[in-house]
């Protein structure tokens, strides 16, 4: 008891206030999401590069290599500027995510379901039917469903259109050997606004090597925007969905419908936006609105 008393006297217990606890929670949240962002983007490679460079400079300091230390000291600002330039798309995406309405509504619950739907039930049915019909006959397709972030720069890489979405039109566009079948289409609301669009390819090393450029383009587009991208494989007819840099492969009709329902802002249950984007859909979930 005497020893315990002495130890407790030695221990330092800082004064904790409610604001300190809130501060710790905020910092934990931020550090977790920055770490996730680093892992999910090529910033992870940069981090590894910085660690290697740090070790090199440390060794130079230990062995008193003054020229190397001088060069390292003077190149810090140049490297910081270079990092901002190289990671401009990722930084822009991170800031856009912060500004997204759905991100805010995941934090502020009363914002949920205020916005009217982005596209109609008919559009959703047409997309789902077309995707699985094309899958059945192994017609490749790449469909971008735009959300809050406008995809004007990608739209301009293709042929401008202004056409109401229907199953027949979608199937016709992706029909082999037709002028519009190559590349991706972009859907805004209930209309197809562009076809034969060129999407950015993902450089995610973690993607399966068996996936070709169509799937890489879908993931790439989902990394730089909040769009939902549907891919129909020409090789095996499977339908996959890319969102937030994550590719959900071989989804079922119901799963595709649920993902579309989610972005349509008439989600069956109030689920966290980031959880949905980053972890993909939990396979055990069932729609409750059917
Ligand atoms: N950057 C891109 N943007 C838009 N569409 C693209 C892009 N790259 C490839 N595509 C489309 O993907 C087609 C090539 O698909 P590829 O066979 O390489 O991909 P895949 O992922 O293996 O798909 P699949 O399973 O359908 O074969 C191209 O003909 C083109 O229509």
From TrEMBL:
What EC number(s) does its UniProt record assign?
2.7.7.85
TM regions (residue ranges): 21-39, 46-63, 69-87
The residue ranges of the DAC domain are 88-255
Does the UniProt entry include the keyword Transmembrane? Answer: yes
Molecular function terms from GO: adenylate cyclase activity; ATP binding; diadenylate cyclase activity
- Reactions performed catalytically: 2 ATP = 3',3'-c-di-AMP + 2 diphosphate
Give the matching Pfam families.
CdaA_N, DAC
A Gene Ontology biological process noted in the UniProt record is:
cAMP biosynthetic process
Supply the alphabetized keyword list.
ATP-binding, Cell membrane, Membrane, Nucleotide-binding, Nucleotidyltransferase, Transferase, Transmembrane, Transmembrane helix
The entry sums up its family as follows:
Belongs to the adenylate cyclase family. DacA/CdaA subfamily.
Q: State its role.
A: Catalyzes the condensation of 2 ATP molecules into cyclic di-AMP (c-di-AMP), a second messenger used to regulate differing processes in different bacteria.
> What does the record note on quaternary structure?
Probably a homodimer.
Name assigned to this protein? Diadenylate cyclase
Native source species: Dorea formicigenerans
Query: What gene name does this entry carry?
Result: dacA
